[in-house]
Amino acid sequence: MTEIVSATFLPVLVVASILALSVYLDLYNSVYVELGFEHYAEKANSTLGGYKFPVWMKMPANTLVNVGYVGVGFLWLLRVTSSDKLHETDIATNLYMVSIFAWMAIIYGFTQFARIVTQSLFWAVLDQWFTLPFFCWTIIWSRTVQHGWKAQSAVLILVLSILSYNLALLHKFGFDVALGVHIAVAFWHGSSVVRRDQVANLENYLDEAGEFASVFSSESSWALVFGCGVWKPIVVYVCFEHHQGM
Length: 246
What we know:
By secondary structure, this protein is an all-alpha fold. It is 75% helix and 2% strand. The chain has a two-stranded antiparallel sheet with strand order 1-2. The chain is globular, with a radius of gyration of 24 Å. Mean pLDDT is 78; it is low at 208-246. Keywords: Membrane, Transmembrane, Transmembrane helix. Pfam families: TMEM187. The chain crosses the membrane at residues 63-81, 93-114, 120-141, 153-171, 221-240.
């Protein structure tokens, strides 16, 4: 599956490079970002649990979290390369989605690492901006699980997500608004996938219960199967309504 890993790296790198170039050209110098270690809960003393880190690593806990981002990203890329089910369309699509997300995690981890260490405007703006496509890909992934891969809608959603960062140029809290919308939409789509899977699992469970009834006598079997058949839509409906209200 190395072809998927290598093929997904290029589009992620291109998008990240375009955003980085935009910031490098000082197009986003007016964006409000919090710079300085005083904005973090962790004390800037290069110490964690009694262990002394290099002086440039002012906040070890916050810094090492991003090493975790990078590590998890590479771990998932490794799992993708070890898969032997590329010939199965659905699985190949999932591997593609995972690979994109893994590369994004790696780049995001490096970016936030650089922001914490340098406390520079360049990395701070990129840290904010990269967050939006991160959530956006969750939305695209959820839609793909539900409706299948649709390239045009995926590109449109991604472009809108990237452009939404321009709200930060209009208002101090523009980024917060954009991020809030991303989180809400991602949560809604993600919960829709969870609801769908839970309903499907419940239906499978009830189907298995109906099949299990066949081991009993003919009369009991018909009663159980009929019971499952009658109550299944009611139970599924109740569960769906319950999750709708959450």
